[in-house]
Design a protein that fits this description.
Blueprint: E1 3-10, H1 14-25, E2 30-34, H2 47-52, H3 54-73, H4 88-112, E3 115-119, E4 121-128, E5 131-137, E6 141-151, E7 155-157, E8 170-171, H5 173-176, E9 185-189, H6 193-204, E10 208-212, H7 224-237, E11 240-242, E12 246-253, E13 256-262, E14 268-273, E15 275-278, E16 282-284, E17 317-319, H8 330-344, E18 358-360, E19 365-370, H9 373-379, E20 383-389, H10 394-399, E21 405-411, E22 417-424, H11 427-439, H12 444-448, H13 459-468
Parallel strand pairs: 1-2, 1-6, 2-3, 6-17, 8-15, 9-10, 9-15, 10-11
Antiparallel strand pairs: 4-5, 5-6, 7-16, 12-13, 13-14, 18-19, 19-22, 20-21, 21-22
């Protein structure tokens, strides 16, 4: 007889492991299934985020930023270093160690919260009395039964049509995080979050980086003023970004990769590089889930169809994170996961898509929440805008990084904050104040009248709020 659980979670990424832990906290018997393996073949829960996404990319970004600071900026502080060199294998090893710490941390949390973990691929078998039978294909095959099923199987990197990833020359985010040495020339297709972050890592280490983007405008989801400021900074750093291109034939050989493309002017071009990273989006991961066995509905893009509460078309089956509609963000998956666990327990889970923050961890960082100025114009919303540059912030001057600004958008009549957009140092941390303010329906004046520590980067948030009413104090 198969083991029975109140809740079975398929996938242990940010959505899956959080759903499992929260359900266990609420008194449910919980199983979590995940097949991700580390180099030694052991369990590596945490999904794309922990293994080949958020966590390892931030580790490499930090290492490469230290290297660039030592090369370009230490002298300004009176620090002499001599010739600075980078040990790429050691940098990668540090990244791997951080990933393992996170993997082990999740396994510890499962044990602490009495979540039963199964290492293998989970898939539907059939509907049974009181729930669903789920197969676990690991070292040994076994079946378990759950009354409630939460699917959190995440997403996979999207390849160029006819150009599969070989993770040697043509790389997904996985291969991009495992490069053993600094390439002389690196090409990236896609100027989104992954492309810009990976491009930044290797540019800092001395690689000539070219980014090819099909869209005619840079970061169209970002507020236009902020995107222009970011592009200006990336151009100055030497990150070559070409917009409005059309990719043609891609050839891979022992010498490297050759990309034929047409530029925005319609001219035929060729880019020859040592390695090519393709970051043109991600697709929902439902491969091997055996959704058809129980009639689980998928849409035309392969995503699991859910309602506003993350319920699927099947009773007792839920889905969260990258495998459903909405932005593919780890923190979005976590919020949905908590909400679903609470709904299973008869509570009222809550996710506010209007206040989900987004961050690009380049230097300068880019962060935003709420609507952009171009969105407000398109919707015909009357608004007021206020900006404040980090150039006028004392802490930014002391840091030696005054690139960028903070921008507030508020309703012209009520002054309610409609969006906050930032580009500059550590704005990934500053954006949380804006998220809290918007959750509580705050006005720009509310932020303007809150005391902020001096000197701090957060004073730029206060000053931008003051700028909505045209009364900045330091600019």
């Amino acid at each position: 007889m198969s083991k029975q659980f109140d809740v079975i979670v398929i996938g242990a990424g940010p959505g899956g492991y959080i759903a499992a832990i929260r359900a266990a906290q609420l008194g449910k018997t919980v199983a979590c299934i995940d097949e991700w393996k580390n180099a030694a073949g052991g369990a590596a829960p945490g999904g794309t985020c922990t293994n080949v996404g958020c966590i390892p990319s931030k580790a490499l970004l930090q290492s490469s930023e230290h290297f660039e600071h030592a090369n370009l900026h230490f002298a300004d502080h009176g620090i002499s270093t001599g010739k600075v060199e980078i040990d790429v294998p050691k940098m990668i090893a540090r990244k791997d160690a951080i990933v393992k710490q996170n993997n082990d941390g999740i396994l510890y949390l499962f044990k602490k919260n009495k979540v039963t973990f199964f290492h293998g691929r989970g898939s539907f078998v059939r509907t049974v009395e009181g729930g669903y039978e789920i197969k676990v294909a690991g070292k040994e095959e076994e079946s378990i039964t759950g009354a409630q099923i939460v699917v959190a199987t995440g997403s996979n990197a999207r390849a160029l049509p006819g150009v599969p990833f070989d993770e040697e020359n043509i790389l997904s985010n996985d291969g991009a995080l495992r490069l053993g040495k600094t390439p002389k020339k690196l090409g990236l297709i896609g100027a989104g979050v992954i492309g810009l972050e990976m491009g930044s890592v290797w540019r800092r280490l001395g690689t000539e980086v070219t980014v090819l983007e099909g869209m005619p405008t840079f970061l169209p989801v970002v507020d236009e003023q902020i995107a222009k400021e970011a592009k200006k900074a990336f151009d100055k750093q030497g990150l070559k970004i070409e917009m409005g291109v059309k990719i043609g034939e891609v050839k891979s050989s022992k010498k490297g990769v050759s990309v034929a493309y047409t530029n925005a002017k319609g001219e035929a071009q060729t880019l020859d590089v040592d390695k090519l990273i393709v970051s043109i989006g991600r697709t929902a991961n439902t491969i091997g889930l055996n959704a058809e066995a129980v009639g689980l509905q998928l849409d035309e893009r392969g995503c699991i169809v859910v309602d506003d509460d993350c319920k699927t078309n099947l009773p007792g089956v839920w889905a969260v994170g990258d495998v459903v509609r909405g932005p593919m963000l780890a923190h979005k998956a976590e919020e949905e996961a908590v909400a679903v666990a609470e709904r299973i327990a008869g509570q009222h889970g809550h996710v506010n898509f209007a206040t989900l923050p987004s961050v690009i961890y380049t230097s300068p960082e880019v962060a935003w929440v709420g609507r952009t100025e171009q969105q407000l114009k398109a919707e015909g919303v009357k608004y007021k805008a206020g900006t404040f540059p980090f150039l006028a912030n004392g802490r930014a001057r002391a840091l030696g990084d005054t690139t960028g600004m903070v921008k507030f958008l508020a309703d012209a009549e009520t002054d309610e904050i409609l969006g906050v957009h930032m580009v500059g140092p550590m704005v990934s941390e500053l954006i949380s104040e804006a998220v809290v303010a918007m959750e509580f329906k705050a006005s720009s004046e509310d932020i303007a009248r809150i005391c902020h520590a001096h000197p701090s980067l957060s004073e730029s948030t206060k000053e931008a709020a003051l700028a909505v009413d045209k009364r900045t104090l330091n600019f």
